Amino acid sequence: MMLQQTQTGRVAPAYGTFLAKFPDVRTLAHAPAMEVIQAWRGLGYNRRAVDLQRSAQAIEHEYGGVVPSDLKALRALPGVGDYSASAVACFAYDRQVPVVDVNVRRVLSRAARASDELSLDETRRVAAEWLAPGEAYRWNQALMDVGAMICRIDKPLCAQCPLKATCEYRARGLNKGPRPERRPKQSPFEGSSRQKRGGIIDHLRDTAGEGVSLSVLAKVIHPNGHKDLTWLVELLEGLEREGLVEMTPGARRGSARGIVRLPG
Ligand code: SF4
Fold it and tell me: Which residues contact 243 (CB under 8 A, 6 or more apart)?
């Protein structure tokens, strides 16, 4: 779940620290939410910390603390999509299912259909067809590695690729063609709601359980001043709905002295 939206280099150190603090499903399920959110520091998209704990609670209550191996059961857990469900089923339980991340999608699109990006449904069809029988564990990881290191977006290293003999993309010379058109970039992070939401949670991490008043929080996010607190209350309400903050009634009303804190 950490890898859903964060690069491996940032996940690797956080993963070890997180597991040291929450070594099993039970510990995670029973921890104060505040501690889980604290331990998510540096990974971004804090909602995943809440989802992960809610998943642990569901696993504890519905599956006796044992992570299910069935795709449908995994998929029903909070914050678990197709990628995470199939990765757990395959890499933890050796289930013979394809695992499609963004790199695997590119490799299969190119190698099987000479396309830069097939639809997700079509990619899943190809992934299921191509799955090496009995070898899903190694096959999926191999495809991920080929996608990450060889079949790069720009200038794929086809001469080193294990799929080069049968790759449709290469056969048609598309690997030497102009770069594929980039998808429109995500909206800028600077000044975005996402940045402000992240800033709020980071500040609440630093203030531990005591919380902070709306007026202080507003200054942290807008150091140059921002008298109207409506924007802040709206952001906080969203964060509260997601289980990331708690607000006193005063804070909900927009009172400058209302208190916000991480959930206990
Ligand atoms: S041969 Fe080239 S284009 Fe085809 S899968 Fe390998 S790296 Fe990608």
Answer: 33, 50, 54, 263
Q: Which CATH class is domain 193-261?
A: mainly alpha
- Ligand 1 mean position, distance from CA 106 (Å): 9
The C-alpha atoms of residue 50 and residue 188 are separated, in whole angstroms, by 25
13-22 pLDDT, tens digit each: 999 999 999 9
pLDDT digits (tens, 9 = 90+) for 139-166: 999 999 999 999 999 999 999 999 999 9
- Give distance in angstroms: CA of 171 to centre of ligand 1: 9
- How far, in Å, from the CA of 144 to the mean position of ligand 1? 13
Do 88 and 77 contact (CB within 8 A), yes or no?
no
Alpha-carbon distance 52 to 124, whole Å? 25
The domain locations on the chain are 2-93, 102-176, 193-261
* Probe target for ligand 1 pocket from 146, 151, 152, with the most ligand atoms within 8 Å of CB: 151
CATH of 2-93, one of 2.60.120.10, 3.40.50.2000, 2.40.240.10, 1.10.340.30: 1.10.340.30
Q: What is the dihedral of CA 46, 49, 50, 55, to 10 degrees?
A: 150
